[in-house]
Design a protein that fits this description.
Distance between the termini: 20 Å
Largest sheet: 6 strands, antiparallel
Strand content: 25-35%
Structural class: alpha+beta
Shape: elongated
Number of strands: 19
Order of helices and strands: HEEEEEEEEEEEEEEEEEEEH
Helix content: 25-40%
Number of helices: 2
Amino acid sequence: MYKGIYIALSGAVLKQKQMEIITQNLANVNTTGYRKASISFKDYLVSAQGDKADGRVMSHISSYSIDFSNGNNFYTGNPLDIALEGSGFIALEGNLYTRRGDLRIDREGFLTNYNGKKVLGRNGPIKLPRGRDIRIDEAGTVIVDGVEIDSIQVVDFPKKDNLTKIGEEAFSTNDNPVKANALVKQGYLETSNVDIVMEMFKMIETLREFETYQKAIQMFDEASAKVNNEIARI
């Protein structure tokens, strides 16, 4: 009986975690460059005593993964908006990498992402002179009033599983980056890769499974209380 409670409880906890990730994906469906997350589960046998498994099946998270497939690019016309076509990331200061390309120019003239992190060029942060015409070509070269200033670092990682998510759309890793084959599209932004219909389906399915585990826990609890009452009468 108590084994059943443990099994149902482990399932409910995991479904709650899955619900949190689905909710996060849905909350960021309109976040530029967002990459959806998911988790998978694994069952294993445990023993209450010793090393011998006693048949109690518990569940735990076996993997947390990020879907790095591309979102859709949409036209904005803003010269400081860029989208990457293909696999790759925009390199930022602080060992950060992102697909989000709504860039800014700060008070000192540095090219930054939306929250102030400097965009890296060939030799460090990119600083732009004052100018009227800003062009960014497909190779990431930044040209101001016809003069080439620098080139945005667009990099990639052979093992994306080693990337750690920082915030909603940035990543960090200790792996060395390689040059990406992605093309830079000026005047465009990339949407998140969240499929809202699929995520809603997953949410309904996960909620039903969570409710099933809750009912099982309640059933075991009521059965346990009944047994205890009967023993007390004896």
